[in-house]
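Hi L.,

As promised, UDP-glucose 6-dehydrogenase:
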Amino acid sequence: MAIKIAVIGTGYVGISTCVGLSDFGNIVVGFDIDDNKIKRLSSGDPVIYENGMEYYLKKNLETGRLSFTSDFKVALKDAEVVFLAVGTPEREDGSADLSQIKSALDAIAEIIDRPLVIVTKSTVPAGTNRWINDYMSSKVDENLFEVVSNPEFLREGKAIHDFFHPDRVVIGTKDGKENPIMRDIYRSLYLIETPFIWCNWETAELIKYASNAFLATKITFINQMANLAEEMGADIHKIAKAMGMDGRISSKFLHPGPGYGGSCFPKDTKALAKTGRKVGVVMSLIEEVISSNETQKERMIEKAKRLLENNISDKKVAVLGLAFKAETDDIRESPAITIVKGFLKEGVKISAHDPKAVENFKKLFPYVEYYDNAYDACKNANLVIICTEWNDYRNLDLDEISRNVKEKKILDLRNVLDPESAIKKGFVYEGVGRKGVNL
Ligand SMILES: NC(=O)c1ccc[n+]([C@@H]2O[C@H](COP(=O)([O-])OP(=O)(O)OC[C@H]3O[C@@H](n4cnc5c(N)ncnc54)[C@H](O)[C@@H]3O)[C@@H](O)[C@H]2O)c1
Ligand SMILES: O=c1ccn([C@@H]2O[C@H](COP(=O)(O)OP(=O)(O)O[C@H]3O[C@H](CO)[C@@H](O)[C@H](O)[C@H]3O)[C@@H](O)[C@H]2O)c(=O)[nH]1
């Protein structure tokens, strides 16, 4: 039987939850405090750039299983379950800001009049679901609600695929036991034998942070190895490939680059470190990962300056790629931000291109020159920096770049180009963890 669900917050995770759960056959109403977003979603515009999202959004709107509203009462009217998918951004001290969660709970408490399962999909620090339970108990009869933790593991750019094919579904309950309504909501995944992990709230919360922190650590490890490989004349790609052939290590998340970014790894590693400090367990490894990632971004600016022979005033740098990774228009914590900010501060002229993220980047940096075409962005540049691994950049025509640039210098922060062909065409080429040829 279709379960009636309200989803609070329609950012990346909220939209994916709305679309995914309605596609599983549930009746879903999405709510957001941003009216404009609700209008766009209702008309079938997914707001974010995400492959496949528009198709599934329109498909489920058409069946009538999915709708959106900016009226909280309408969203909650028939709901048996409410998913909290609001943001949990970083506070200045690195801890998670739970104010969006709190306002959603206050709104629920005001109108709740029959039993409701409150599911936390947002990433929240260990102890938060227990706090949600206590907070709601202080406001309404405790028989009126049940709290469930159901962290999300989707990746931006692959959100639809990840929602339909998760490696696992983690569900934390008060007593750590199975919850039938949650099993029903995800019945389509049960049918394809997706593993379900039933556990208590704190375990579910920590699984989410442990997973992100582990992946961030893996990236940081390979970035440090890349820096060493550069100095020793080795090729990090061959090192990572050989390491990855050991099944215990796996080849995933061993791509070196300018440091991890995005809306999750930076804030979640910091929040985990903060939780550790709060309870007297210093997460020294994670703290080192956080600071090493910052150093990696700064190191990229130093590499660029070296290529410009440290004489940077009056120079022009072309930045190709502004999104924090390919296949998304999200620029949150993008390494391109650190690089552009660092150069603008020193008076360097920046021209930029990105297939999808220009509009978002413009809001932060209105004075950068933006181009619809990567070759135009390279005109008269003294250095071209590739910041995002878009496929468009893998196939760049280096002859055309040669004709456009002032100096033939490329800093390839994602190692998307073949160093040998770049060098053969007369470019000074530098990647991350592989300097030149004969590696
Ligand atoms: N982005 C990801 O890939 C991803 C993946 C897994 C988990 N997460 C976690 O999921 C949560 C949401 O992330 P996101 O990237 O979708 O966030 P987001 O910032 O893109 O979206 C949050 C949405 O919540 C809305 N909102 C804020 N307060 C509200 C309120 N009181 N009532 C209703 N709506 C409200 C905002 O208008 C916004 O649309 C975070 O905790 C994040 O860590 C994100
Ligand atoms: O080998 C790699 C893999 C990734 N990255 C960088 O790491 C960051 C994060 O990448 P990715 O994990 O693909 O993107 P997100 O969409 O941020 O997804 C992560 O964060 C989400 C939010 O918590 C989780 O749900 C996902 O499981 C987790 O992968 C990006 O800057 C990537 O460029 C690397 O530098 N090297």
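Residues 8-14, 31-34, 37, 85-88, 100, 103-104, 122-123, 152, 154, 156, 263-264 surround nicotinamide-adenine-dinucleotide (ligand 1) (CB under 6 Å).

Thanks again for sending the construct details.

K.
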